[in-house]
Amino acid sequence: MLDNHQKNIATFIHLSTFSRFLIPFGNFIGPIILWVTNKDKSEFIDTHGKQAINFQISILLYAIILGTLTIPFFIFKIFSGLDFIDFNGFHDFHINIGEPSPLLYIGGTLGAFAIIGFILELVFIVIASLKARDGEIYHYPLTINFLK
């Protein structure tokens, strides 16, 4: 039987991921501290702690992949107008944005995916918090289970 204390700790494990807006890497530090100090007290808390940490690690991995795909497209677009062979200093330096290239469209699309992913991450965290408050187990979608 779950008591309110266990439900509250599981809820705070999920909500502590929002601490990243105040503390660098708070989305890892908060859940890990709450999970490690309370995982032996309840299987419910242990499950929610693992889910929250696995989700944050998965999101970090997806962000790194998206970033490594997106950033080069913008860099190639910016430097495509420069002629490095006939470089005469910065007195004639200008970047001509001109017409959008396909690289910019691809990079913009990947950037839009990143924004949508961020919004979905926030929604999933709120849903997990509400499920924990109600005493239910929640499994984040698209989560890689690093901790089992």
From TrEMBL:
Record has Transmembrane as a keyword: yes
Per its record, how is this protein called by name?
DUF4870 domain-containing protein
Q: Major location, coarse class?
A: membrane
**Transmembrane segments annotated in the record for this chain:** 12-36, 57-82, 102-130
- Note the Pfam families from the entry: MamF_MmsF (PF09685)
Q: How does it sit in the membrane?
A: Multi-pass membrane protein
Lineage start: Bacteria, Pseudomonadati, Bacteroidota, Flavobacteriia, Flavobacteriales
Location in the cell: Membrane
Identify the keywords attached in UniProt to this record, alphabetized. Membrane, Transmembrane, Transmembrane helix
Q: Which organism is it from?
A: Wocania arenilitoris
